[in-house]
Design brief:
With about 700 residues, the protein is α+β, with helices and mostly antiparallel strands. About 15% of the residues lie in helices and about 30% in strands. The protein contains 10 helices and 40 strands. The strands form 11 sheets. A 5-stranded antiparallel β-sheet has the order 1-7-6-5-4. The chain has a 5-stranded mixed β-sheet with strand order 2-34-35-36-37, with no helix packed on it. The protein starts with a strand and ends with a helix.
């Protein structure tokens, strides 16, 4: 653990006394001074009533101050602001407290994450605040309560089991003097999902609810698990089952319920996980639980028997709507599968569902049964399938917002297909291993820069129609907020921070942040001045996308990570940053590539390294492009970093289990990729394969 208390905090009048965000303040939507939770208030609308910055004044918006965070590798979270202090979480769960007017750092806290858990994800996305404490979920599975004034931890609890595949990247939620946290890990296999509620004062466990059933021979924790077991077949418990709650949880004070959004199955491939079929509750579902006891109330499953990584772990926004002249207590949900759902949150019944973008795996949703009308062949019954959307979804974790003024939901979306192939995998012989945790043939080639597109969509949840749409750069852009100034703010992959008219979608203001981002902004006020804040820096899921993520030119540690805070008539100067560029692969003729070794290295690299260094070794983010690094030219230097952990302090995990032969094979693969120039004929062949697959899908759809 490392704690640094800013000298500024001790020299001045001391830290501001916290009344503390509590039940009343989080439920109160009238006061926008604080942004005290991941979605600002319990309804998670990400709507602020502040209107000093509005359609007429936004052109005067300027930088008030900024904070450089260049020792931090990933800045994808949304900050909080409480009583004049900004709390932000970056990197591997490091927490900063910053004066909200001046940008002075008050304290920092580093939980020193377990290096083994660094391998599994890209870092933290958010915090929770409650009665003078900051709550942080650490990537290695710990939940820590930090004193907001001193930066000292009050308590810490391990929410997972030592050595398991679970990790935490999402924001905790607080309510009723409890803090709830889930976890990720289903993509790595042998994980059974759950959420756990802890006492905010002591860290004592109050309740835990599993999302999928365990081994029936061990008995069931509750009636909900017994009910769910009837929807599974085979010996699913040997694989864990999945269903992790890695992102969205929403507390509803009107019904005193918590809604949890559950994730994909483990493995992804339904026929391996549940060979005789079944819906596999509660995968890819919205589940309502009693907030005090954790007891099951109702559920709605968006993707029964899911087989595509179609998480329902995206936002669940609460809104009061008038539909067919009737007031409805609604829950708005846009999961990965491409549909926008409006649910009645009293009983979980489906009100409406429509396609948010290009969806080819299902024709629509049957409003009587609530089930998707699947397209034949989408489950890769014939061995392979190309469908829209892919595993990234039309909407991913990047938060959407709802404005009660306009009645519109604002959603960062993407359009990109997914290729699924389970060649050679049959239930009777397949085993879940670290080499094949998803039960699918891997894709290890570079992803072209034009493989997908993105947009900011304004969606009317009452009519289930698009109000407006604005194209955005690349495929991964930041989450959004809406304000009473009739503005929608979003940070983008090309480095632009943009304000749109909430009704028309017109761009009213833009600022060049010097680097792209996928973080969501927030807004707060201090002493009568409204501020808008955003973290900027290139990291996260873009890093594994190869050329698709690298196209924007944000290279490794060359470009900044920073917190930017804006106010009307702000005149601060942003420190300069290098222009976008692309790393130049080192083509060392003295290194003779052994292509047999390179093929072996490809498998190792794709299993362990692609999450940070990019598919096909084409880096798309903060981690360096290894094709342009001299490290792979030296066996000893490569081993010192990869095997021995020479760069642990910079966020590079070590892999002591790798053999000398595996390290050597990876070096040959990296050098091969550095020399790789795809031929015209290989590109033609790739296009041909794509067209053949499209024809196969259409024939399957027609039943041929």
């Amino acid at each position: 653990m490392r704690i640094r208390l800013g000298l500024w905090a001790t020299l001045l009048c001391g830290f501001a006394a916290h009344a503390g965000v509590d039940q009343a303040s989080l439920a109160d939507t009238a006061d926008g001074a604080n942004w005290g939770a991941w979605g600002r208030t319990f309804d998670e609308q990400r709507f602020s009533p502040l209107d000093q910055i509005n359609r007429k004044t936004v052109e005067r918006l300027g930088l008030a101050w900024s904070l450089e965070l260049n020792d931090i590798w990933n800045v994808s979270s949304q900050p909080l602001a409480v009583d004049g202090v900004i709390y932000l979480a970056v990197g591997y769960s490091e927490v900063y407290a910053v004066d909200a007017k001046s940008g002075a750092v008050l304290w920092t806290y580093d939980p020193q994450v377990d290096p083994q858990k660094m391998r599994m994800a890209w870092g933290i996305r958010g915090l929770a605040f409650w009665k003078g404490r900051v709550y942080v979920g650490v990537q290695d599975g710990r939940l820590i309560a930090i004193d907001a004034e001193t930066g000292e931890p009050d308590w810490s609890v391990l929410t997972t089991k030592p050595g398991d595949n679970r990790y935490i990247t999402g924001a905790p939620r607080v309510f009723n003097d409890m803090v709830i946290i889930g976890h990720g890990g289903a993509d790595f296999g042998h994980v059974r999902g759950y959420v756990t509620a802890y006492d905010t004062e002591t860290g004592a466990q109050r309740w835990r609810w599993y999302t999928v059933p365990g081994n029936p021979a061990d008995g069931f924790e509750n009636a909900a698990m017994e009910m769910a077991a009837d929807t599974w077949t085979g010996e699913w418990w040997k694989f864990g089952g999945g269903g992790t709650v890695w992102n969205s949880m929403t507390y509803d004070p009107e019904f005193n319920r918590v809604y949890i959004g559950t994730g994909n199955g483990s493995p992804w491939n339904h026929k391996l996980r549940s060979p005789e079929g079944g819906d596999n509750l509660f995968l890819c579902s919205v589940v309502a639980l009693d907030a005090d006891t954790g007891e099951y109330v109702w559920h709605y499953q968006t993707t029964p028997g899911e087989s595509w990584d179609f998480n329902s772990a995206m936002d669940m926004v609460l809104a009061d709507l008038t539909i067919d002249d009737q007031p409805r207590k609604a829950l708005l949900h846009a999961p990965k599968n491409g549909f926008f759902y409006v649910l009645d949150r009293e009983d979980g019944s489906l009100i409406s569902a429509e396609k948010l973008g290009k969806v080819t795996w299902a024709e629509g949703v049957d409003l009587e049964t609530g089930r998707p009308i699947e397209v034949r062949g989408a489950r890769y019954e014939n061995g392979e399938a190309l469908i829209w959307p892919g595993s990234g979804g039309i909407h991913n974790w990047h938060p959407m917002a709802f404005s009660p003024r306009s009645g519109l939901t604002y959603i960062p979306t993407r359009e990109m297909p997914g290729y699924y192939n389970d060649e050679g995998r049959e239930p009777q012989s397949w085993e879940l291993t670290s080499n094949d945790p998803m039960g699918l043939k891997g894709f290890y080639e570079d992803i072209p820069a034009n493989a997908g597109t993105s947009a900011l969509e304004a969606w009317d949840p009452v009519t289930q129609t698009r109000a407006w749409s604005v194209d955005t750069p690349g495929v991964v852009n930041g989450g959004v907020i809406a304000t009473a100034g009739d503005l929608v703010f979003q940070g983008r992959a090309d480095g632009g921070f943009v304000a749109h008219d909430a009704v028309s979608g017109a761009e009213l203001w833009r600022y060049d942040m010097g680097v792209g981002t996928q973080a969501a902004p927030m807004t707060y006020s201090v002493d009568g001045t409204q501020y808008v804040a955003i973290l900027a820096g290139w990291g996260g899921s873009q890093m594994l996308l190869g050329s698709l993520g690298a196209q924007h030119g944000w290279v490794g540690r060359m470009h900044p990570r920073r917190l930017l805070v804006f106010a009307l008539d702000g005149e601060a100067a942003l420190p300069p940053s290098p222009p976008p560029s692309r790393p130049e692969p080192i083509r060392e003729d003295d290194f003779v590539v052994d292509h047999e070794k390179a093929e072996q290295g490809k498998a190792v690299f794709s299993r362990l390294c692609v999450i940070c260094h990019g598919t096909a070794a084409v880096a798309g983010g903060y981690a360096p492009d290894l094709r342009a690094s001299p490290t792979s030219l030296s066996a000893s230097a490569f081993a010192s970093i990869v095997q021995e952990g020479a760069l642990l302090e910079r966020g590079m995990p070590n892999f002591p289990e790798l053999s000398t032969d595996e390290l050597e094979a990876m070096r040959h693969y990296i050098r091969q990729q550095a020399h790789c120039e795809p031929s015209v004929w290989s590109q033609i062949a790739a296009v041909w394969d794509f067209l053949v697959l499209l024809v196969k899908m259409q024939l399957a759809k027609w039943g041929w």
